[in-house]
Design goal:
It contains five helices and two strands. It has a single domain, classed as Dissimilatory Siroheme-sulfite Reductase, Chain: A, domain 1. Strand 1 and strand 2 form a beta hairpin. The chain is globular, with a radius of gyration of 12 Å. By secondary structure, it is mostly helical. The chain has a two-stranded antiparallel sheet.
């Protein structure tokens, strides 16, 4: 593990840059991770997905897959790809301060 600094806050990250402790996450960290990944600003729809991911992760103990997000958060797959290009499940989890979802390449 290593440490990365987002929004002036040092956090533990894995080798792929995913936060290892979701309790260290803040909305400011999310905004910086999003900017680093070409998403600026985070819209209301982004926040709806981020909030769902964090709640679902807390309830289930694992980050949600894109399928779970689309089925349970009411965000169509096409919109997920518009909101989080280049891998919506991975990017949504990373911005949400979660570990990498299982099954994502």
């Amino acid at each position: 593990m290593s440490t990365a600094t987002f929004a002036g806050v040092p956090v533990e990250v894995d080798a792929e840059g995913f936060m290892t402790n979701p309790d260290e996450w803040t909305p400011e960290i999310a905004e910086e991770i999003a900017r680093q990944n070409g998403i600026d600003p985070l819209t209301e729809r982004h926040w709806a997905v981020i909030d769902f991911c964090r709640r679902d992760n807390e309830a289930k103990g694992t980050p949600p897959t894109v399928r779970r997000i689309t089925k349970q958060a009411g965000v169509p797959t096409k919109e997920m790809y518009q909101l989080f290009p280049k891998g919506p499940g991975i990017l949504a989890a990373k911005i949400s301060g979660l570990t990498k979802p299982k099954g994502c390449i």
